[in-house]
Amino acid sequence: MISIIKSPKVNIVLDASKLDSFETCPAKFNMRHNLNKTLSVQFKSDALDKGSLAHGGLEVYYKELSKGTHYDDRMSAALMKIREMSSNVSESNLDESEVSILLAAIEQSCDFWRAEDENSLEVLAVEQPFAYELFSDDEIRIIISGKIDLLVNFRGLGGSASYEGLPIDHKTYSRESMLLRKSNQFINYCNAVGSNYLIVNRIGLQKSKSAEEKFKRLPLSYDPLYIKAWKDNLIKMILNGYLSCVADNYWPEVPSSCNKFMRLCEYYQICD
What we know:
The protein is α/β, with parallel strands linked by helices. The chain is built from ten helices and eight strands.
């Protein structure tokens, strides 16, 4: 009798950030995620820097909300966390004036949504990591991972709809821009928790706008067919594109991505 020993499956683990990076430019993906050519914090964009600080503060805020901590105390703890992160040169390169604007925006946003947060949200998880199997055959297993900013049960008041297992994603912004429903990050969150809806908690950093104008919680809907189409497309991209790059050890450049949104790719000088 001949026994056949099967080789273990190859696990491919990707998150939304890696998917975006590969779709933008395989060469960029290779630099960042395979060769680990990470750059110092001084090269981090201001938008990314502010977003990181805001997430750190809001993580503290909503964890304290889940414990029933008084508003003043959880707000103080959140702002302290942002100050602590901003003073660490390995985490932030923002100057004091930019940090002050961010602190004011976070405090104003939390105050603006205080009644809804305290009366309508049941916090289930904060900055909760996840991983699920997207695809598997005899040879490979594709696992998609991520971390959800906030997962809640929303209790509608006054006859409004309630929703369980609702993911919320925090986004700071300085300029108005279109919210793209076809975001890998957003669809990934919904697929991970089995939700057809996601809320984007937009926090405007503009000084001249009112709270109603710059603090918005925008709903996005994803029906099962929409999510299935995303999964099918993702599987094809990974099997036909990503695995080819891995097998050939060749990561093609995409020159049209060198200067996206008026920002030069951080690896441009290396590729050039």
